[in-house]
Structure formats: structure tokens, C-alpha cells
Amino acid sequence: MFINKDELLNALIKKKTYEFNVCTHVSLSVHPSGSKTLLMRYRIDGKKKCLKIGNIELFSNEELNQRIRKAKQELHDGTCPATRARTEIRKNKEGSIRIEALIDYYSKTHVAKLKSADQINALLNRHLIEKIGYVRIAEFNQQILETALANVGQTTQRKVAKLLHAAFNFAISRDLISMTNPMSQKVNNFGRNGRKTKRYLKKTDIELLLENINNVTSNKSIVNAVLLLVATGQRKCEILEMRWDEVDFNNKEIVITAERLKTAHSEDIEKQEDHTIFLSDFAITTLKNQLERTGTKKNVFNDLNVDTFNRDLTKIIKKIEQLKHFTPHDLRRTFFTNNLESGYNVKVLDKILNHKITGVESHYNYAQFIENQKEIMKKWGVYLSHFHKL
């Protein structure tokens, strides 16, 4: 490649950007400031394109010639050199973005608008920014996240994984990054150990919990929530998000509306029935105690946080000697297993827990077992009342 210095001098004298051919497809652009840049102009797919080869003062002739040869070869192979160059630049910029910046962008732009912003940000800060915030997104993989979350519970692991998945998707949708979401297809199974949990409380564990729970916490709402979970066998979200207008003290029942049920789906919400929970005297007394605390509010457990309840429960369990770790969902297994061992019909217990009927049976079985449900709840409540005086 040969560049005439006289032509360069003339371009500078004219005090305007001047461009002249150097070789096929390649021209030199001279800016009044003195900057001299090689450009490659060409057509591909009927469109005019321009690729910046580089400043001749910053690169040697050998480097510039090498870039020109590479671009011409790409053009010969049907690849647009300019598009390829822009992609490389973008990847280099994306590669420098750290997890901390990604989370910060997601938090300020999206999470801040949500009602549960404080809880979400607490999870993001505690488990992502503090542990892997320094990691560049180009270097991130699932193993890094698994190592960072090795000492936290499976539920928390999945929550954090879902938040990180959402953060990547949010940045991709806003064109901040162009990479494939590294958390795709990994969220739902994240943190699982590949086998179903078999944990439940035996009657000796139940008795230990009920006899000591008042002694290890002063938060009566948490106590009442745990007692209701034990007494009814219902899902955590269905109890902790329960409203006072769903509680019927006269008929001793709770009616959870269809849209609040886990078994409700958008496509069949109109067909979904409300779920009625029949209450024992033990459960009724527990609710009346809670009524004194939050009766003026909309929600029964207005002062509890669904997202942090597991952590609060774990603190209580650790204070009770000889009581092994369990989760709120284990109390659901506890209710089912202990009553099944007492000889009650599995189909009645399925109805109490509102298990979804599948297969052919779903087209034929419409039995409600109301009296049977009431009997089970009553006797279970009597058993519990022996170990926890309300």
C-alpha cells in the first residue's frame, strides 16, 4: 500500500474532510484535525457499506494491510465486514459488563416499580451482587451461580435463579446486550437435588413444635400462621395471603377464591371452583387470636412477609432443641401423612388439601366428602389442642 504524502498535505491545507482512493475498495479519509483513517467502501446485497479499517498513525502498514485482506476475504465469502466488525465491538463491550451492573440496571429500571421491590432487592443484593457481582457476564455460567448459592436453601436458590434469568431477559429485551440468556432452561430445576423431598414431621416432632413455639418467639402472628398451617394442611401462600372476607366464623370455614388457588390457570379460571377449608375449634381459636392483631386490616397476616416467612420459621426451628429443619410445605406433608396413618381415606385427604384430580377420574369424581372432611379436621384439631393451649 502506497500513500502519497503530498496528497495528504494538500488535504490538510483545504481544512475539510478529504477522501481519495488508495487501492481497490480502499480510500483514505483526512480530517481537518489531521486524523487520517483508512476506509473500505463496497456493496453487498445491493446496499452501500463502509468499514473503518483504522487510523494510519495508530497502526503499522502491516496491520492495516492485514485488516484490508481480511475484510476483502469476508466480502468474497459473502460476509459483510462492517456488520462483523460492529458485532465484535459490541461483544467486547458486553464482555466488560459485570453482573453487578446488570442487576443494578434491572433493579433501578424495573424492580423499583414493583410492590415487593424491597424484598426483591434484598435477595439481589445478598445473593448476587455481594457474591458474584464482580463476574463479567461474558464469563458467567450456571456453575458460578451454583457455587455462590451452595449454602442457601433450595427455595431461595430458585428465587435467585429466576431473578437473574429475568434480569438477563430484561437487558436483552432493552437491547442492552445481544447474548443468549445463559439462564435459559435452567430456572425451574435450579437448586433441586434430583429426588423428591420425603420430609415430614412425626407426631413427636409436632408435639415438640407446639409445646415450645411460644417460648422461642414473641411474634404471635408467626405463631398463629404456623398453627394454621399445621391445623389445615394448606399451602403457605393460601394461608399467608388469606383475607378476612374469606373467613366465616359462623360456619367454621375458610373459602379461598378460585383465582388465589395454585391449581387455577388462566385458561380454565371460569371452571375452577372456590376451595372450602373446614375448621376445627383449634383453628377457629387461632384465627380469633389473630383477629385481635390484624382485624382492621384486609389480610389476616398483614404483618407477615410471604417471601421471608421461610427464613423466619427456620430461626424458630433452630431455637427448639431436637427439632430438625423443615419448611412450610413440609407441614402440608405432615398433615396428610399423619392423618393417612390414622386410617382416613386418601381421597378425603386429597379433597382437604385440594389436590388436583387428573386422568379419567377427573371426568367422573365430583364427590365432596364434606362430613368426612369435617370429622378429620375436628379430630386433628383435638389432637393438636393437647399440646398447645390457646
From TrEMBL:
Gene3D superfamilies xref list: 1.10.150.130, Integrase, DNA-binding domain (3.30.160.390), Intergrase catalytic core (1.10.443.10)
Family matches, as InterPro entries: DNA_brk_join_enz, Integrase-like_cat_sf, Integrase_catalytic, Integrase_DNA-bd_sf, Integrase_recombinase_N, Phage_Integrase
Keywords: DNA integration, DNA recombination, DNA-binding, Plasmid
Protein name: Prophage integrase IntS
Biological process according to GO: DNA integration; DNA recombination
GO molecular function per UniProt: DNA binding
CDD domains membership: INT_P4_C
Entry keyword annotation includes DNA-binding: yes
Matching PANTHER family: PROPHAGE INTEGRASE, PROPHAGE INTEGRASE INTS-RELATED
The UniProt record lists the keyword DNA-binding: yes
Domain Tyr recombinase: 196-378
Family the UniProt entry places it in: Belongs to the 'phage' integrase family.
